[in-house]
User: Which sequence fits this backbone?
């Protein structure tokens, strides 16, 4: 236990407090069991440690942070940790990388049921499901899914420009208010182009080198495919190379309307296996599957379109400069999906949002041909500073969170 406390003290002292994400302040950290889910690199660990630094001194033994990939758990159980921590006055236990601990759900349930007055915060992969495993935690646990930085947060973190978030309705109904606020403080197109390449993952601030940044993203993707998918989703280890090939094929394609037969030939995987793996990669936040009717989409139904999860990942994994249309759609789907249902627009626009808004994504010269006469339809156009009627700058939807 002493080694864990010493390690926790080092994490505590090394945690930066210069900028705290707004989404961290909106989480109710006082619930009995809280789970933070998201891909590695989006800042889950930092959020946990920042919260501890805000509410506990380094000498306060009522809080403890640890990570399940540490050496301690090679010879101890989660139960051992929780019991000892509780007996010594512990009140708030933070457990990182929970998905790396075998049968974690069973022990978390036992800890939750036994130590009623101790709060638990766990974090893990986007693949983490509170409805699977040995114990059903869905009724006990409050889940928060963490994304990478929005364009708004990028401006705050990297450019010291602090602008409040807007709802989609506020943006669509009166885009001039936000556009004027942003253009008074920066040239948004230049900042936006930088964000599309380097702004999604907070660790670019530390690396400050595009080569290292993209290498880190590649390592992250490889780790998810080689470690998390076999561990959590029981993907065959023999197929992880084929899955990586599948991701590479999609990263080097234009906005991808799914052709399962062609993907099967290119990747060497069977049809049903491809659809199963696409779903795993979507949950892991490597790919984003878009359906024309998401509510009625069946588990083994092929999606209408596949995109990379975010534009930074696309730049990291593409063998050459990615298609700009793909980059735009990646950004739009990523930002809009945070609080909205994003569906494929089929013959009428690129995306349908919440079953109401039709959005067409393109360059500054994009016209209304595909969405003419449709109610609640808008163009999101790249390389624009100001809105013009129902034609809005693409970057403007980067202020939703």
Assistant:
């Amino acid at each position: 236990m002493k080694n864990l406390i010493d390690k926790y003290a080092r994490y505590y002292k090394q945690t930066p407090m210069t900028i705290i994400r707004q989404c961290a302040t909106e989480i109710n950290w006082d619930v009995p069991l809280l789970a933070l889910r998201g891909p590695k690199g989006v800042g889950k660990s930092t959020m946990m440690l920042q919260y501890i630094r805000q509410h506990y001194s380094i000498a306060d033994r009522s809080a403890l942070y640890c990570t399940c990939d540490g050496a301690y758990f090679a010879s101890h159980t989660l139960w051992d940790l929780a019991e000892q921590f509780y007996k010594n006055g512990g009140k708030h236990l933070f457990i990182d990388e929970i998905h790396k601990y075998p049968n974690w759900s069973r022990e978390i349930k036992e800890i939750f049921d036994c130590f009623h007055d101790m709060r638990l915060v766990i974090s893990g992969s986007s693949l983490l499901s509170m409805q699977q495993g040995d114990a059903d935690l869905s009724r006990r646990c409050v889940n928060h899914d963490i994304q990478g930085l929005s364009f708004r947060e990028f401006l705050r973190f990297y450019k010291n420009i602090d602008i409040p978030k807007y709802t989609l309705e506020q943006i669509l109904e009166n885009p001039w208010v936000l556009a004027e606020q942003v253009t008074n403080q920066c040239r948004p197109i230049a900042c936006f182009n930088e964000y599309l390449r380097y702004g999604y993952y907070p660790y670019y601030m530390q690396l400050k080198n595009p080569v290292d940044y993209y290498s880190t993203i590649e390592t992250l993707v490889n780790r998810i495919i080689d470690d998390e998918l076999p561990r959590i989703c029981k993907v065959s280890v023999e197929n992880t190379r084929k899955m990586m090939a599948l991701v590479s094929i999609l990263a080097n394609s234009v906005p991808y309307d799914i052709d399962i037969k062609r993907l099967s030939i290119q990747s060497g995987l069977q049809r049903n296996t491809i659809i199963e793996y696409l779903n795993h990669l979507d949950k892991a936040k490597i790919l984003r599957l878009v359906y024309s009717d998401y509510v009625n989409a069946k588990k083994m139904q092929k999606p209408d379109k596949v995109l990379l999860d975010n534009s930074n990942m696309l730049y990291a994994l593409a063998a050459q400069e990615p298609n700009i249309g793909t980059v735009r759609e990646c950004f739009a789907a990523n930002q809009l999906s945070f609080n909205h249902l994003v569906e494929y627009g089929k013959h009428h626009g690129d995306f349908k949002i919440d079953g109401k808004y039709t959005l067409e994504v393109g360059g500054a010269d994009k016209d209304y041909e595909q969405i003419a006469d449709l109610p609640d339809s808008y163009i999101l156009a790249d390389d624009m500073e100001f809105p013009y009627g129902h034609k809005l700058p693409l970057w403007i939807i980067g202020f939703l969170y």
Remarks:
- DSSP finds 16 helices and 13 strands in the chain.
- The longest helix spans residues 210-233.
- The chain has two domains: 2-145, 151-399.
- The longest strand covers residues 119-124.
